[in-house]
Amino acid sequence: MRILKIGYVFFTQIRVLALLVSLFITSIIKSQDVFFSQYQYSPLLINPAYTTNDYDIKAIAHFRNQFRSPDPNYRTPSFTFVMPFLKKNTNMRWGGIGMSAHSDQTGTFPLLLNQGIGLSYAHNVYLGKGYNLSLGVQGGYYQYGFSTNSFSTESQFSNNGGYNPNMSNGENLNLVSRNYLDLATGLNFIKEDTTGRRKFFLSVSAHHLNQPNRSLLEEKNSLPYMFYIHGGITVFSNSEWLVEPEILFANQASFQRYTIGIKTTYYLRKETSNMLREASIAFIPKYTYQNSLALGLELLISNFLVAFSYDYGTSALATRVSGRGAYEIAIGYRKSLFKKKKPASIIDYSLGDIKRIYLSENIEDISKDLKNERERKGYNDELSDTDTNWYKANNHKFELDKQFRFGFNEVGLKEDAKKFADDMFDLLQANPRLKLYIIGYSDNIGTEKANQYISTERANSFVKYISTKGINPKRLKFEGKGEGEPISSNRTEAERAKNRRVRFLIF
Q1: How far apart are CA 453 and CA 410, in angstroms?
Q2: Nearest residue to 65 (alpha-carbon basis) of 327, 442, 356
Q3: What DSSP letter does each residue of 315-359 carry, written as one string?
Q4: Where are the alpha helices (DSSP H) in 30-70?
Q5: What pLDDT, on the 0 to 100 scale, is given for residue 30?
């Protein structure tokens, strides 16, 4: 019995020594940085510039439980809060702040511990035409260590009772740890459409810029730099589907990790429930080279997010844990600060059937409005909600006649005309298939030739203004009709002012 006791104690001491050596080697090679397969729920661990990644306020709790050998498992709870800043009355992001906290630990007691909190700030620069560039910085305070509580020592043996795990192991160093400051920075480049939906992005970030000492021994061990390159692109998008592939590359000393994934989102459109109209379901598979295949499912209802993911190990480690993988759970709240433009209610039309222009992100919505209008008038032809060919037919046009109170012989655009032209620009930019035909008119004062010239220049002034904002001139046509087709008599100045107008044909 005495021999067994000595042998067990010797084995225990060797185990402690092996763990210390393992901690030292690990801190040099891999540094035990926090790892999530579905890193989009803990974005600030990748890049502090992601505080301005979109228009959403976010508060997300994220948990990962990973089985490994010989330790029972790694448990990593994380919490992220992000708040972007927008300029007043616009959708232009100028900055954002964020906070991330995590506690990465293994074992029941735990054996290993890596926890802390980081604060982030990013400044965003609008480069024009939907391009954004943001620079982020992050500072955090962290603790790294291990506990001796789970080790067995000679103090837990008695002469009569043998080994008693409930007795103290005699170790005074219950937690060996080191506290340190850590700094990070990152850049993020984004292209968005007019509705705020991301088209593509590319980001780079660097962590452990101050190379903090995280060694638990007397020797100094600076934490190696950690670099991330992250990018993605939208390959398909409409009112119901969104497909976004992406890639993440991580490098730290000799350690490298490649992850590719693709997020496929389906948006629920149920007229009977306002909540379901804001709902979406996403399938998110991700593959980490020579490590794991993660399959994720995300449900977003109104502003609330629930997600689950499971990792299937594909590395040599998987055979040592009998196929036991890892799972992740995320629960969060998201609220968009993006201000959708209200429908532009345009008055003073004398032509056309439709009296409102909807600044829509999808041409399908305009098609639905047209279908409803045709049904109201008794047309029996079928027009699909997703049919986008209607704009080619001459009998399917928006005809808008607008008075802008042009002064006598005036062709320049005043503020009300520019505001209307801005609405036309938004409509054309949001719906690339639409075209605009502009017709100018005049009153009957002056020669016919002069009125023809003035009416043409009035229409042309709109074309010049809209094209300089970024619309292809091939989508814009104009002509002048002089004093023809008056909508009011020309007997008084007030009646003549009504005839100094511009007509818009959208098809």
Answers
A1: 11
A2: 327
A3: SGGGGGGTT--EEEEEEEEEEE---PPPPEE-----S-S--EE--
A4: none
A5: 42
| pLDDT exceeds 80 at position 353 | no
SS3 476: strand
2-336 and 344-506, same CATH topology: no
Render pLDDT for 236-285 as a digit per residue (tens, 0 to 9): 887 678 999 999 999 998 889 999 999 999 988 544 444 455 789 999 99
Would you say residue 369 has pLDDT above 80?
no
End-to-end Cα spacing for the chain = 95
Q: Residue 19: pLDDT above 70?
A: no
Mean pLDDT of 212-218: 77
pLDDT band, residue 377 (cuts 50/70/90): low
Q: Is the pLDDT of residue 468 over 80?
A: yes
User: What does the pLDDT read at residue 51?
Assistant: 94
pLDDT at 154: 57
- The answer to whether residue 394 scores a pLDDT higher than 80 is no
Q: Which residues of 37-55 are buried (b: 16+ CB within 10 A; e: fewer)?
A: bbbbbbbbbbbbbbbbbbb
pTM, two decimals, is 0.60
Q: Give 224's DSSP letter.
A: P
> By three-state DSSP, how is residue 472 classified?
coil
Write the single-letter amino acid at 101.
A
The residue extents of the domains of the chain are 2-336, 344-506
Q: Which two tokens stand for residue 237?
A: 């998008």
DSSP letters spanning 115-150: EEEEEEEEEEEEEETTEEEEEEEEEEEEEEEEE-TT
Question: What's the per-residue H, E or C state across 368-403?
Answer: HHHHHHHHHCCCCCCCCCCCCCHHHCCCCCEEEEEE
Q: At what angle do helices 415-430 and 448-468 cross, to 10 degrees?
A: 50
Query: And the tokens for 335?
Result: 């609220």
pLDDT tier, 29 (very low <50, low <70, confident <90, very high otherwise): very low
**Strand pairing report for 436-440 and 476-480:** parallel
Paired tokens of 81 = 């809060």
In this prediction, residue 358 has a pLDDT band, given cuts at 50, 70 and 90, of very low
Q: What is the residue type of 100?
A: S
**Of 379, 482, 466, which Cα lies nearest the Cα of 424?**
466
- Bridge partners, 163 (sequence order): 157
Superfamily of domain 344-506: OmpA-like domain (3.30.1330.60)
Third-level CATH fold of 2-336: Porin (2.40.160)
Question: Residue 268's CB: how many other CB atoms inside 10 A?
Answer: 15
Rounded Cα distance between 282 and 200, Å, is 18
